[in-house]
Design brief:
elongated; about 35% helix
Length: about 70
């Protein structure tokens, strides 16, 4: 997986929503939340490429759309 996007440091209710999503996947992240200077970075995709070279022919899918990022801004 390759991924490019627009990154930001969410605050307020956006940060709370991001943390809920993060902790749902990685519950032990609540322990790391107490680390000094921890930051939560959100990346909104502009370009994603998935490649699977274990199959013949190789599977390569590419998606490009900065509208994903703008729609969430």
């Amino acid at each position: 997986m390759q991924y490019e996007g627009i990154a930001d440091l969410p605050t307020g209710s956006d940060l709370d929503a991001c943390k809920r999503t993060y902790f749902a996947t990685w519950p032990d992240g609540r322990e790391r939340e107490q680390w000094p200077d921890i930051a939560y970075v959100r990346v909104r995709p502009c370009w994603v490429r998935y490649s699977d070279f274990a199959v013949t022919p190789p599977r390569i899918e590419e998606m490009r759309s900065c509208c994903w990022a703008r729609a969430q801004a």
